[in-house]
Amino acid sequence: xxRKVQLxxxxxxxxxxxxxxxxVSSVAIAQxxxxxxxxGGNLHVGNGEVFESAAIGIEDGKVTFxxxxxxxxxxxxxxxxIIDVTGKEIYPGFVAxxxxxxxxxxxxxxxxxxxxxxxxxxxxVRSQIAFxxxxxxxxTVRSNGVLLTQATPRGGVISGSSALMTTSGWNxxxxxxxxxxxIHLNWPPSMEGGGWWxxxxxxxxxxxxxxxxxxxxxxxxxxxxxxxxxNPEKKDLRLExxxxxxxxxxxxxxxxxxxxxxxxxxEFSKSLGLAYPVIVGGYDSHLITDQLRDAKIxxxxxxxxxxxxxxxDAVDHAYRLPALLKEGGVKFCIQNQGDMEAMNTRNLxxxxxxxxxxxxxxxxxxxxxxxWSCEIMGIDKLYGSIEKGKSATLFVSEGNAxxxxxxxxxxxxxxxxLITPTNFQFELxxxxxxxxxxx
Length: 439
Description:
- The chain is an alpha/beta fold.
- The chain has two domains: about 10-90 and about 395-435, Urease, subunit C, domain 1 (Roll), CATH 2.30.40; about 95-385, Metal-dependent hydrolases (TIM Barrel), CATH 3.20.20.
- It is built from 13 helices and 19 strands.
- The protein has helices at about 15-25, 135-140, 170-175, 210-230, 235-245, 260-270, 290-295, 315-325, 340-345, 350-355, 360-365, 370-375, 425-435; strands at about 10, 35-45, 50-60, 60-70, 80-85, 90, 95-100, 145-150, 160-165, 175-185, 190-195, 200-205, 250-255, 275-280, 300, 330-335, 395, 410-415, 415-420.
- Strands 1, 2, 3, 4, 5, 6, 17, 18 and 19 form a nine-stranded mixed sheet that branches.
- Strand 14, helix 7 and strand 15 form a beta-alpha-beta unit.
- The longest helix is centred in the middle third of the chain and has 20 residues, at about 210-230.
- The chain is globular.
- The two termini are about 35 Å apart.
């Protein structure tokens, strides 16, 4: 028998939330609540604004209003579900750009890695269809408030096309926010060597840098000529995948870090007339903020929890880089590429917390993993902040979500759909706590 679950009011605490979601999942639900009211929480909008006590109206998956909860009179007949979140913190769903989340399960097991294809120039390879919504890793990330991700391929010179996905859904079609949002170009390193953190060594110039840079330019020139031809009789899948880069429907995410690389990327983007170039990494981007700002090229900044790349770099360079870009007027967001990045995506809020400790304000740090990410990727009209008319993709935390001591998600919504705030790790904790506590 199919029944509709309707709740008039829920007083939030962790045990009640677990019981609530257990109850919801134990029955067949014909229809999700279409009218939800969140009342009393401290709202971090995502655009820098804060409301100390907000009433948020949600209908059919979108935010319909934000009002002062103290001055708002609730008519219970207007809502399917009223949730009192007084004293809690409300955030827009955090966004993980440039991530292999959903494309890998166990990095050490080749069969679970779907982020890399053979070949050098693969703009036609699409990460969207490889995205695994049922990943167990995904649930551990989602429960820290990361509700959107950019599923990104790796390898080669052009890795392929990324896709913007939610971290909750029935399948990859259901999770898709925007398919094929851009291609990912791995710019050749201008320097090589350097050893590693235990055995540092000086870097030297990459002798093949100019040659590899020229190869990239030739491929892009060929793609541009193909697009300008209009509708060629003989279709080329690789070049067709490049069409949006020149027509303004796709971004070009250029992975580059060293100063020489960044300067060349700016010139490369300008010469080809790329509509939306984005630098991913940008380790030395603080050195050319004027050029980046004038060229209107944003940066998905290198993981803040990173070691210095050069012997002479300050040990806290990566921590301070977001604040340095903010000071220089460069649009940026925080991403997490690096070792074990899929599982470490759960730490995205704490990367923002580190950036806050090294120069950003709290609301700037929130924006760096929400609205600014969505602006850079072109989905800010619907996602990234909690505003009227936008998707109700948000979560409620017991405390400050940028602090690992207080980030405790107790309620989440993705496109207005309630999601469970727990994951299998919480379930295992409960299971073995009962066993060894004698219960």
